[in-house]
């Protein structure tokens, strides 16, 4: 029998442009982790195990970061699953609590990044972990001079345009929405509103993507304290506890390496993970009020609407035109501003999504609060690959 698992404390730093201020990843974790512990009302000594997610860093960087919160000798795991790293750390903590191994765990995510496009670690004496993805992309559409990440996600957008008649304006409208949402998020890296014209006319990156439709590199950290139902009752934390109703992680299937640029960036992984959480929870997409979705590029947000079941395949453009993915519509997607505007410190992103949805379900999201939110959905994607989908329910 699996036990119920709850988020009882969350915290996050501001997400900032790399190098904007003098801080290092231990400083970030001290800030976010302390917030989460204080939010939960527990001392670090209550934490039985720690799961530390980061992409850029040496082995045991997790220990170096977590030691800022205390030196208690508990197990600390170092987690790396590309852009889904933060939610992978959360997934691992949740599994061990649900399985009866732990009662209280801490998931941390952090990243100290360099400016500009994502770079590899420069090791040319071994296989590139994304080598198979890039080979498939080259076979599908060639390999252009654009940076690989916007190229592979841009190609998915191109395929959607060719199949379904989606327009460049549909993708730009997503970026416009997320930048607008971020104006109400004080932790967001960007807090400026941009017109649709400004987004369309910003620097081209890889058609149909322009600069203002691409997530920036960012510094930052986020954290979550998880507890079993028994521990929540013992400490009297019922009023602030948010249940993780269901959670699923999937990895690539043969479809990822076929002829579809949409499948190459994880459409089928996301679709499968969403189906699994809805089946496990007994809920449906119609029950969901608010969504934090992995919009590393505007093209990915659009195709993920269809993967998660917000609409049938090919109908995402109509969903956008109808205003169904913002305030006043069927769902509010990325009230935080999403990766495009809030920022994307890779290891922290999944836990920042968790923090945002926890605040939303508690009614603590201030100006960006989704009225009456009771059910929330999280989607976090990492090429290479892993998709993590989570359903949260207000207690």
UniProtKB/TrEMBL annotation:
Subcellular location: Peroxisome
Organism: Lujinxingia vulgaris
PROSITE patterns per UniProt: THIOLASE_1 (PS00098), THIOLASE_2 (PS00737)
InterPro entries found in the cross-reference section: Thiolase (IPR002155), Thiolase-like (IPR016039), Thiolase_acyl_enz_int_AS (IPR020615), Thiolase_C_2 (IPR055140), Thiolase_CS (IPR020613), Thiolase_N (IPR020616)
Keyword Transport among record annotations: yes
EC number per UniProt: 2.3.1.176
The name this protein goes by in its record: propanoyl-CoA C-acyltransferase
Keywords, sorted A to Z: Lipid transport, Lipid-binding, Peroxisome, Transferase, Transport
One Pfam family cited in the UniProt record for this chain: Thiolase_C_1
Limits of the Thiolase N-terminal domain: 5-230
């Amino acid at each position: 029998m699996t036990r119920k698992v709850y988020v009882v404390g969350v915290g996050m730093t501001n997400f900032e442009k790399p190098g904007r201020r003098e801080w290092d990843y231990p400083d970030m974790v001290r800030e976010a982790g302390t917030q989460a512990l204080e939010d939960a009302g527990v001392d670090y000594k209550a934490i039985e195990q720690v799961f530390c997610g980061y992409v850029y860093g040496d082995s045991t960087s997790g220990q170096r970061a977590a030691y800022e919160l205390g030196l208690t000798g508990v197990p600390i795991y170092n987690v790396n699953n590309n852009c889904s790293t933060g939610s992978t750390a959360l997934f691992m903590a949740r599994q061990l609590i649900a399985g009866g191994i732990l009662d209280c765990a801490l998931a941390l995510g952090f990243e100290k990044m360099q400016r500009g496009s994502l770079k590899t670690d420069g090791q040319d004496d071994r296989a590139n972990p994304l080598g198979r993805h890039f080979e498939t992309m080259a076979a599908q559409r060639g390999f252009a001079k654009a940076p690989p990440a916007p190229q592979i996600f841009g190609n998915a957008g191109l395929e959607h345009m060719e199949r379904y008649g989606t327009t460049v304006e549909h993708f730009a409208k997503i970026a416009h929405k997320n930048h607008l949402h971020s104006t109400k998020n004080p932790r967001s890296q960007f807090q400026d509103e941009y017109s649709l014209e400004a987004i369309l006319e910003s620097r081209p990156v890889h058609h149909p993507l322009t600069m203002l439709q691409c997530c920036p590199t960012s510094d930052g950290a986020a954290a979550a304290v998880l507890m079993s139902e028994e521990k929540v009752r013992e400490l009297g934390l019922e009023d602030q506890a948010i249940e993780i109703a269901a959670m699923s992680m999937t990895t690539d299937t043969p479809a990822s390496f076929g002829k579809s640029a949409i499948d190459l960036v994880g459409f089928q992984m996301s679709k499968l993970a969403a189906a699994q959480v809805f089946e496990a929870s007994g809920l449906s997409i119609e029950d969901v009020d608010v969504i934090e979705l992995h919009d590393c590029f505007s093209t990915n947000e659009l195709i993920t609407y269809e993967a998660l079941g917000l609409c049938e395949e090919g109908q995402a453009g109509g969903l956008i035109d109808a205003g169904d993915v913002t305030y006043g519509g069927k769902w509010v997607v990325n009230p935080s501003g999403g990766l495009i505007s809030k920022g994307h410190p890779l290891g922290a992103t999944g836990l920042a999504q968790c923090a945002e949805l926890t605040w939303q379900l508690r009614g603590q999201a201030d100006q960006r609060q989704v009225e009456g939110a009771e059910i929330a959905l999280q989607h976090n994607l990492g090429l290479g690959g892993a998709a993590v989908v989570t359903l949260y329910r207000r207690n």
